[in-house]
Design brief:
By secondary structure, this protein is an alpha/beta fold. It has helices spanning about 5-20, 30-35, 50-60, 110-120, 145-160, 180-185, 195-200, 205, 215-225, 250-260, 300-305, 315-325, 385-390, 395-410, 445-450, 475-490; strands at about 40-45, 65-70, 80-85, 90-95, 100, 125, 135, 140, 240, 265, 270-275, 280-285, 290-295, 310, 325-330, 330-335, 350, 360-365, 375-380, 420, 435, 460. The chain has two domains: about 35-75 and about 250-325 and about 440-490, FAD/NAD(P)-binding domain, CATH 3.50.50.60; about 80-240 and about 330-420, Alpha-Beta Complex (Polyamine Oxidase, Chain A, domain 2), CATH 3.90.660.10. The structure holds flavin-adenine dinucleotide and 2-acetamido-2-deoxy-beta-D-glucopyranose (3 copies).
Length: about 525
């Protein structure tokens, strides 16, 4: 995974630094720099899975002179739990990540999040979301499981054929297309609302975006590297966390093992990151300033896209282009609690509306294996529909959800909810979406540039920088570990060139604009 700096740039770098030698005489600039007190060697900006894992990696490498700077009052980031329900009937539910996606097959690669869940005794349950499902439309319960099963096969075919030129005798690599193009090319073209809802369940519900907005190649890789053991993935198993301490326990306990109080600044929102030859200066919204030799920025891709944090000097063009070449999906879980359960006994239900993506996926937490007696239903929406409901008042969204339930259960007198809640991920300036996704056409140079450090001082890690596991908890984990290790080597070597980047990303041939 780690791109080792090739020899040539390394040699060039040595030549370049030799050429700069005269400058290294104690100039005014250097005298000033050495006089400035540093608060730490490394500032880890953001205390989610990537930030905490990077901290643990530095610690394991013998570097403890770091500070984690986090805007919220606790660690975990998108591992975010919420106490939900009527005052006398509260349950801990997960607003963000909820599943360990892929565990382990035999002695194969283990999902590191699964390892952490076991280490910290986080309670999980196997999710059977393809096998335990009921189907509905505007007429109430309506069996379209055959259509649903066909959509499972269509998705498998989509994944299996990405990057292959169909029809030819010898499979060849294709340029990338959208996943919509891939579906169409492989003969899947949903028309009915039952087909659209079924496709939605396989695709949008996983990626948080539509097939139109997704790279065919990248979504196949992401799926394979997480789930398909034949491609190096963990397993097809999904485990739902129902631990009443919150899923975040696994990363908060990791942090507790290694952090001393002076290594953590909570309630500290970064407003600017300034870099120079000598180090970094990080300014917080309350005016406090922290100085260090290096900064590792783990803010979400959305935060970088929305300029919520100012970079001084501005990021170079190659970095800006990489940041905007990827997109953020939104995945919104709407929690509703009722006095009692009146719905399906399966774990999941799929509702087919005439509008694709309108309150389609329903999950029952009031299930014998999950939170029995909780009275909690979760309906998930994604993408543009998420953005739409984020701009509406809660009461409006609640009444739409109630209208859909009345259609799904025409014979039930649907009672008033006892609680209602959803997190607005897209409008939250600390996240700006749920997780990243590659639109077509995916170019590996953009991926490399998103991951690369800027100058020697500013480093990046997070789920979005992961080539294999973007979008997942294990992507944030493996990037925190890998970049943490590279940074440790850099610190021990008293400087380094870091990761390779491409200054100008080009197509194989320039476009001929007529
Ligand atoms: C709704 C939802 C469902 C998901 N479901 C799953 C799932 O089931 N399984 C799975 O594997 N993955 C899932 N994911 C993805 C997973 O949660 C993420 O990939 C992972 O948590 C990202 O970790 P990170 O450390 O890269 O980023 P983050 O968790 O975003 O960490 C970055 C931290 O930076 C902080 N920050 C941001 N801006 C500032 C600032 N200006 N100053 C200071 N601090 C700042 C944030 O508060 C945050 O704590 C889901 C995500 C969401 C939102
Ligand atoms: C962070 O802020 C919250 C809310 O204002 C407060 O309850 C909490 O004690 C603060 N934590 C720290 C470590 O300052
Ligand atoms: C793990 O959790 C379960 C249930 O939450 C509990 O019964 C058990 O005692 C815990 N084990 C340890 C080692 O903490
Ligand atoms: C994903 O895995 C399937 C099944 O193992 C394989 O046929 C396909 O080529 C893989 N896709 C990619 C893009 O590697």
């Amino acid at each position: 995974m780690l791109r080792v700096t090739p020899l040539l740039p390394l040699l060039l770098g040595l030549v370049a630094s030799a050429a700069r030698l005269p400058e290294l005489r104690p100039s005014q600039e250097i005298l000033e720099a050495s006089a400035v007190r540093k608060d730490a060697t490394v500032l880890i900006l953001g205390g989610g899975v990537a930030g905490v894992t990077a901290a643990r990696t530095l610690h394991e490498q013998g570097i403890d002179d770091f500070i984690i700077v986090e805007a919220r009052g606790e660690l975990g980031g998108r591992l975010m739990s919420h106490s939900f329900g009527a005052p006398d009937r509260k349950f801990t539910v997960e607003l963000g990540a909820n599943w360990v996606q892929g565990t382990q097959t035999g002695n194969g690669v283990e999902n590191p999040i699964w390892a952490l869940a076991k280490k910290h005794n986080v309670t999980t349950r196997p999710s059977n979301y393809l096998g335990s499902i009921s189907t509905y439309d505007d007429s109430g319960a309506f069996d379209f499981l055959e259509t649903f099963d066909a959509s499972v096969k269509d998705f498998t075919r989509l994944v299996a054929t990405a990057g292959l030129l169909t029809g030819g005798r010898v499979p060849k690599r294709l340029v990338d297309l959208t996943a919509r193009g891939g579906y169409s090319l492989t003969g899947s073209r949903p028309e009915s609302r039952h087909q659209m809802a079924s496709e939605y369940y396989q695709f949008d519900w996983e990626f948080g975006t539509t097939p139109e907005d997704t790279s065919w190649l990248a979504c196949s890789w992401a799926h394979n590297y997480t789930f398909d053991p034949a491609s190096g993935g963990f397993s097809y198993e999904n485990l739902l966390a129902i631990d009443q301490r919150g899923f975040k326990t696994l990363i908060q306990e990791e942090a507790r093992e290694i952090l001393k109080p002076n290594q953590l600044r909570l309630n500290s929102t970064v407003s600017a990151i300034e870099r120079s030859r000598h180090g970094v200066k990080v300014t917080l919204t309350d005016g406090r300033v922290l100085r260090a030799n290096y900064a590792l920025c783990t803010f979400s891709l959305g935060v970088l896209q929305y300029n919520d944090v100012q970079f001084i000097p501005p990021l170079p063009a190659w970095k800006e282009e990489a940041i905007h070449s990827m997109s953020m999906g939104t995945y919104t879980k709407i929690f509703v609690q009722f006095p009692e359960k009146f719905w399906f006994d399966t774990e999941m239900a799929l509702y087919a509306d005439y509008e694709r993506g309108r309150y389609p996926v329903w999950q029952s937490l009031d299930h014998p294996f999950l939170l029995p007696g909780s009275g909690i239903l979760v309906v998930t929406v994604t993408g543009d529909f998420s953005k739409r409901i984020e701009s509406l008042p809660d009461s409006y969204v609640q009444s739409e959800v109630m209208d859909v339930l009345e259609m799904m259960f025409p014979d039930v007198d649907v009672p008033e909810p006892t609680d209602f809640y959803f997190q607005r991920w897209h409008s939250d300036p600390l996240f700006r979406g749920s997780y990243s996704n590659w639109p077509a056409a995916f170019l590996s140079e953009h991926q490399g540039n998103l991951r690369a450090n800027v100058d020697e001082r500013l480093w990046f890690a997070g789920e979005a920088t992961s080539r294999r596991y973007f979008g997942y908890l294990h992507g944030a984990y493996t990037e925190g570990a890998a970049i943490g290790l590279t940074l440790a080597e850099c610190i021990r070597g008293r400087g380094c060139l870091g990761l390779e980047h491409i200054d100008r990303v080009q197509n194989a041939r320039p476009y001929d604009v007529m």
